[in-house]
Predict the 3D structure of the following.
Amino acid sequence: MSYEVEHNIPKNEPTPRHPVRPDLSTFFSNLELVNTSTTQNTNATPMPADVRAVFTTLSDAFRTMRQEGGGGLLDSLIASLEAEADNPPREVQGVSDAFLDELDRVPKKSLKQNDSCPICGNPFLEGKLILRAEQNALISSISQQAVDKFPLVVQLPCHKDHIFDLECIAPWLKLHATCPMDRKNLLLKKLPPPPPPKDEEEDGEYDEMFA
């Protein structure tokens, strides 16, 4: 009996094809040269060529992802990155690693089956078929995100529905402190609500005295 028959795996069943995240090692190497938040670069001004390179490498990576059929948000991100590569800023205005670490994780139970990352287009929850070459057998394996109670899906503080794969949103946020969907600055703290008018405070105290 074949492995497929034994494990009730239909033969020749097409495996869903999702965009593969490109290798970002070159991007992160370039980022080290322009990241002024690190100890060795605190007082350094990045070279314009290095700043241009970091925007270009991320644009190229997103373009590769787009060719694989990534999310609809990619076109606007690529356009922004290319514009910044053509006219690079003096410094990269991204978030810190600590900011990324403190982003709210989205628990698995709050994700719907058809929810997907706006950048890569991959579903947050999915089962994957993995070919084990050493055994030459097709086995069913649930992806780490599907079994992890708190998968690497994060929510940005600007809106409860702005959720992303951390692997996709982190490179963007290392270059921009803004949400890629509404472009709100994520480092600006929300202002506390204004105090009530003085007349209302006095009325409230008066009512309490005679309640």
Summary: The two ends are 83 Å apart (CA to CA). The helical segments are 3-6, 25-34, 48-67, 74-86, 97-102, 144-147, 166-175, 198-209. DSSP finds eight helices and five strands in the chain. The beta strands are 104-105, 127-132, 137-142, 153-155, 163-165.
